[in-house]
Recover the amino acids of this structure.
């Protein structure tokens, strides 16, 4: 585990107006930028090695007792699951697939999302949470969302009833943070926009129906509110599944801004989400 001196405690006082008009004060922890970037740069072009690297990262972040694997049919690599127990059994999922296609290095799609999960966990665990957070790095997304399908299929009705939200991270760092608005729960999207405005971090709505699907859609079919956060535009779209998908394609300032925004967003969701939106 990284010593606590390697994280920075950020106390943010922002006017995030809730339904009753009262401002919410956010207190959240950010992992140092050098650690976030180091995790991004620790990629492999082998999916089995990626899963192993992620498991090590989660262990370093403090998730060694609550990490597990879920075997996925037709895929060699399992889903990797890290649980942060909260005061209740109501769950907020945070997910990102770690597998990639052969072209390029697969840093954008989607090591950028998967390698951010341990940093989000590490910051969130520093303070008690109301909700239980389940961080999942999915395998088999490029073969038809097999990892997320396997996870969702095993959820009982009781599991679904306790599921408050699913936040999916996909292709981050190509530019400012974006949201797939047409496939996002409106309440989750509005809360993200409020946090972005408070932090003065740019965000935009960019729909990506023509690109394909996402692991969040497996949760949507069980009627779990979901949102996919990405960074794609019409200009950067051709980078995916090509030899241009390399570390050099990542804009590191934008990548860390996305991490900063998501770290605050998860804390805000923990404080503001009531049972099922």
């Amino acid at each position: 585990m990284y010593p606590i001196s390697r994280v920075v405690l950020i106390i943010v006082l922002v006017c995030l107006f809730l339904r009753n008009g009262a401002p919410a004060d956010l207190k959240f922890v950010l992992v140092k930028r050098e650690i976030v970037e180091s995790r991004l740069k620790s990629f492999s072009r082998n999916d089995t090695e990626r899963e192993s690297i992620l498991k090590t990262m989660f262990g370093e972040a403090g998730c060694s007792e609550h990490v597990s694997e879920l075997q996925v049919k037709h895929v060699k690599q399992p889903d990797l699951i890290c649980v942060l127990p909260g005061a209740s059994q109501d769950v907020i999922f945070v997910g990102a697939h770690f597998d990639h296609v052969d072209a390029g290095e697969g840093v954008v799609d989607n090591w950028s999302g998967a390698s951010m999960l341990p940093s989000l966990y590490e910051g969130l665990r520093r303070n008690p949470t109301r909700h239980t957070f389940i961080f999942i790095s999915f395998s088999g997304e490029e073969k038809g969302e097999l990892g997320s399908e396997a996870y969702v299929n095993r959820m009982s009705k009781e599991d679904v009833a306790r599921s408050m939200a699913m936040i999916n991270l996909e292709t981050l760092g190509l530019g400012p943070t974006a949201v797939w608005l047409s496939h996002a729960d409106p309440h989750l999207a509005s809360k993200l926009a409020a946090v972005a405005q408070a932090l003065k971090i740019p965000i935009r709505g960019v729909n990506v129906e023509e690109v394909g699907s996402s692991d969040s859609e497996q949760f949507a079919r069980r009627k779990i509110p979901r949102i996919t956060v990405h960074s794609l535009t019409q200009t950067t779209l051709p980078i995916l599944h090509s030899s241009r998908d390399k570390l050099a394609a990542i804009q590191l300032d934008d990548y860390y801004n996305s991490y900063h925004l998501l770290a605050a967003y998860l804390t805000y969701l923990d404080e503001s989400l009531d049972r099922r939106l």
About this structure: Residues 252-272 form the longest helix (21 residues). The longest strand covers residues 7-13. The beta strands are 7-13, 25-31, 67-70, 79-84, 91-97, 132-138, 163-169, 177-179, 203-205, 226-230.
